[in-house]
Design goal:
The chain contains 13 helices and 14 strands. It is of the alpha+beta class. Helix 3 crosses helix 4 and helix 11 packs parallel to helix 13.
Amino acid sequence: MIEGLIKFSLRNRFIVLLIAAGLFGWGAYSVKTSKIDAIPDLSENQVIVFTEWMGRSPQLIEDQITYPLVTNLQGLPQVKYVRGTSMFGMSFVYIIFNDKTDVYWARERVLERLNYAARLLPGGVTPTLGPDGTGVGHILWYTLNAPGMDLGEQRAVQDWYIKFGLQNVPGVAEIASFGGFQKQYQVTLDPNKLTYYGLSVPQVIGAIRSNNNEAGGRKFEMSGIGYIIKTTGYLQSIEQIQNIPLRTLNSVPVRVADVATVQMTGETRLGIFDLNGTGEAVGGIVVMRYGENADAVIASVKKKMTEVAKGLPDGVSFNIVYDRSGLIQESVNSITHTLIEEMVVVSLVVFLFLLHWRSAISIIIQIPITIATSFILLNAFDISSNIMSLTGIALAIGVIVDNGIIMAENAYRNLAIRQAELTAERDEKESVPRSQNGTDTPDNGHGRAGKITGLPKTKSTPQTHD
């Protein structure tokens, strides 16, 4: 088969060159469209279910949330195993699927099962799916440079303006905020006053909740004009919360201010974010969606950040503290330089050993064509161009050129041997002695003298001497 392929290639060189040019063009296009990342994504194919129930202990979270979810999610198709983690006020369930399972198909199956499992959870608890990202999806971290703004104001800008702007970038799964204080109204109850007025904590919670909504009314027409009546009850200040009535005691209303202290403060934090020892900072983490091109997503996020920065308060700017694009570019540049150096070294070695520049060129041409063709296969199998794959290509250059060097050297040697044989045959033909009748002895084409045919036979007569 190999001999037939070689014969076909030699007899149809134009077709071979045309195929090689087509593969090189296709490979060049594949190089431009290939997904570029610094590190390979070796994470498991998983779906995360997050459930929040603040103020509860890890044991209670385990018994009433994590255990019911784990037991009900184990029967899903193509699931390898289910893991559960419980902590203070939060529950995490990790559903690990088979490697060949489509991640979005898996998320649909989990969501269908959650609709059934939610009825087993306490009231007011709603499990949610995590972002469709992976463990290596953190492609960019940033903080805010905001002199003169407190941590609460910075976090409000991050949560209510920057986050919504960056989430619209294609390929971004989530913008995870960190640091600062999340502003909220806190009501601190006095147990002694609750006992004095005969109130309970659920009564206070119910009163505040019922006064923090908007009630619908009705529409009526008067004098040909339609009027819509409604009541607006959203709480917008500390004073409005303090004046909420809880009950009436001897025709005197008992308000929230009589049994509690209301203040504007930050949500309880379990940790802080410090930037290089300079103090606390507020920022966000850009999480890339599963299977996206990291280099293209980072470029789009940076472009969007320049647009978002125009609407920030005066003096506020972005400070990028982690950017994977630098590592990506360094990896690509390192591999590019390695490929060029290896091509130069191989061409010099071949030229010095063979002293034949055409053989060196034929081997050099093989390298870019083979590398370009390898990117076609990378895209076909959805493998990103990362440190591992590009390094493998660089290491494989030695194997790529080995065949070319061996074939060129073998062809060069055989041609040299054949040339020497032809030279010897020509020299032997020129040095053959003439026959007695003056006719040259012909060559039979194999370097040996043949017999003369078609001549009359003569009989030799012996001579006598007296």
